[in-house]
Amino acid sequence: MNILIFIFGLMIGSFLNVVIYRLPAGKSIVFPRSQCGHCQTKLGAWDLIPVVSYLLLGGRCRYCKSRFSLQYPVVEFLTGLLFLLLYQQYSLGSQFLVYSFLLTLLIPASVIDLQKRIIPNQINYFGIGVGLIFSLLFNHISLISSLLGIVIAGGALLLLAVVSGSMGMGDVKFLAMIGSFVGARVALYSLFFGSLLGSVVLLPLMIAGVIGRKTRIPFGPLIALGAVMMLLGGEQIIAWYLNLFGV
Q1: Which residues have C-beta within 8 Å of that of residue 164, sequence separation ≥ 6?
Q2: Which of 70, 82, 94, 217 has the fewest beta carbons closer than 10 A?
């Protein structure tokens, strides 16, 4: 089952690459069939095997030999790995379904934010709607908790964005979307640990002069990383962090 879940995650990751490429361009994520971005040749089934095709073809198009971005196998492998970790954490069940769906939103939103410095409203609004529906269909959280996740988590980051003036509304809606799946508490911890990780990574870069104080850092991937941490070991991480301060 572990192998099947990993392969399923690889296939989802392949679709997420389509979302990452087409959504910011305003293109359909369903039609037309996948094609080379350079020569426009439609790709066959053997060209689209997640990770494997990239390795066998040396990262190049079979037809025009143009190089493909390393993003493609990385996103596919990362999605497969995270699906496997979620399965090992929750087994097959409603929580696995809910959280794996959340992952399929976190990954493209993060990559698009890294590339374009935006988090598309299509992902945020769609995710909020699905999060609310899931709270009605499954028992991971209640509808009230989902609504509070949207309002409290999104509201907290909105206040922070207004005060700091350094965040976009996309980040606010992104955290609200996460809150609709996991509730306010987990969403706020996602924000906290994402910010903490960001400080650990970015502060040395600022000291070294690699980035400046005015460099615009995409915050969405950090929030998503905090959310993944919470999904895979949230309570243990919180307990470990509080123990550091003797709480």
Answers
A1: none
A2: 70
> Are 22 and 130 found together in one domain?
no
Q: Tens digits of per-residue pLDDT, 78-124?
A: 999 999 999 999 999 999 999 999 999 999 999 999 999 999 999 99
Asked if the bond preceding 32 is cis, omega within 30° of 0, the reply is yes
Give dist(CA 137, CA 47) in Å, integer: 38
Residues 102 and 73 in one domain: no
| pTM for the predicted model, two decimal places | 0.90
Distance CA 7, CA 56 (A): 17
Burial of 79 (0-12, 13-18, 19+ CB in 10 A): buried
Same domain, yes or no: 138 and 30: no
Total domains in the fold of the chain? 2
Structure tokens at 58: 């040396």
How many residues are there in the chain? 247
201: domain range? 93-247
